[in-house]
Write a structure and sequence with these properties.
alpha+beta; transferase
Length: 359
């Protein structure tokens, strides 16, 4: 699909804007090795990315974003702190919304700097806002880190917490797990399976990719889960309260401080949010009117684990976000072979930005 000259010009303008802030211009191959994405996100990524097989290089993927190759390059370079910018096409499948583009230009600004995470969050947010200056957009923010801290603080088994953390980015599945872990009820079929002395009696021949040992391990895990007490209703209510928050950032911060009294596990994340709002204010952001949603960012690619944000057309609620971003510290640890570097970044779609200009 050809890209308009106007979009390319705007992409260069944004990239040059970010480069002027000290960002190194980064270029990534359009075809990327698929194994990294499959290791990160599992087979689910096949529903969202374009994969192909090269006879020499193996399974490859059309670049779904720039963040993963940027992180890979940075973790190999060991150049901390560092800033990067890039401009180029990304490719995403759109199975449920045929009106959304499956390839488009993306311009980004990434900061790897652990000296002051709140200041880095504010720097990236302000840089993206500057790139959109003069356009009719509103900002929405959230913090996946608060929800993750709340899950880690639950008084339940490590296996249950791991399952909930794995499905934070799948809201319906997360909700189903919370409901199941908060109940003592077990379906009759599962109860019969767990009670059986020999679950394989009359099971017939083994079929499928899972071995009998895999099935036994899964049954043992289900038995351990069934023996665990349910998550307290009070804790589930606190998680629900966090997810239901939707107000201006200062009001949400006040509400989260109240919740932290009953759920101390989120205290550090809430303090981090407070520091971020101060850093944003120092950069001229009107935090008094900044929107915050407790569930924001949970349908994005699964590498965001802290501050998340997006910019949207004020009069086009059906319009895709013009810009998005967030913190992804855990991704650097996954790709850094044990070495982690605090990192945050944001991207702008220049085609959507141009579409908001007055005719």
């Amino acid at each position: 699909m050809p890209t308009s000259p106007e979009t390319l010009t705007e992409a260069r303008r944004l990239r040059d804007l970010f480069a002027a802030k000290g960002a190194q211009v980064f270029k990534a191959d359009v075809l990327q090795p698929a194994d990294t994405l499959l290791d990160l996100y599992g087979e689910d990524i096949r529903a969202r990315a374009y994969l192909t097989t090269d006879p020499l290089r193996g399974e490859m993927v059309l670049r779904p974003d720039f963040t993963v190759p940027v992180v890979q390059m940075h973790m190999e370079a060991h150049a901390d702190p560092a800033r990067y910018t890039y401009a180029g096409k990304v490719f995403r499948k759109q199975e449920t919304d045929e009106t959304r583009a499956n390839e488009y230009v993306q311009v980004g600004y990434e900061v790897f700097d652990g000296q002051n995470p709140a200041a880095a969050d504010a720097e990236v947010f302000a840089a993206i806002a500057q790139g959109l200056a003069g356009l009719p957009v509103r900002a929405a923010t959230g913090d996946i880190g608060v929800l993750m801290a709340a899950v880690r603080g639950l008084r339940t088994t490590d296996a249950r917490k791991a399952a909930l953390l794995r499905h934070i980015w799948r809201p319906s599945r997360f909700r189903a797990l919370m409901k199941r872990f908060g109940s003592v009820k077990v379906t009759p079929a599962r109860a019969a399976l767990l009670a059986a002395d020999d679950p394989f009696a009359d099971a017939g021949p083994d079929i499928g990719l899972r071995s009998r040992e895999d099935v036994i391990a899964r049954i043992d895990a289900l038995r351990a889960d069934a023996a665990a007490p349910p998550i307290a209703a009070e804790e589930i209510a606190l998680i629900d309260a966090i997810l239901a928050l939707r107000e201006t950032a200062p009001n949400v911060l006040s509400a989260l401080r109240d919740i932290a009294v009953d759920m101390p596990a989120i205290s550090d994340a809430v303090s981090g949010m407070g520091a971020r709002l101060e850093a944003l204010a120092d950069r001229g952001v009107d935090v008094a009117t900044l929107e915050f949603e407790g569930s924001y960012g949970r349908t994005s690619l699964e590498y965001y684990d802290g501050f998340v944000f997006g910019f949207y057309a004020t009069d086009r609620p059906d319009h895709p976000p013009v810009a998005t971003g967030g913190r992804y510290d855990a991704l650097t640890a996954q790709l850094g072979q044990g070495r982690a570097v605090p990192a945050v970044g944001g991207v702008i779609r220049p085609d959507l930005a141009l579409g908001l200009l007055p005719c």
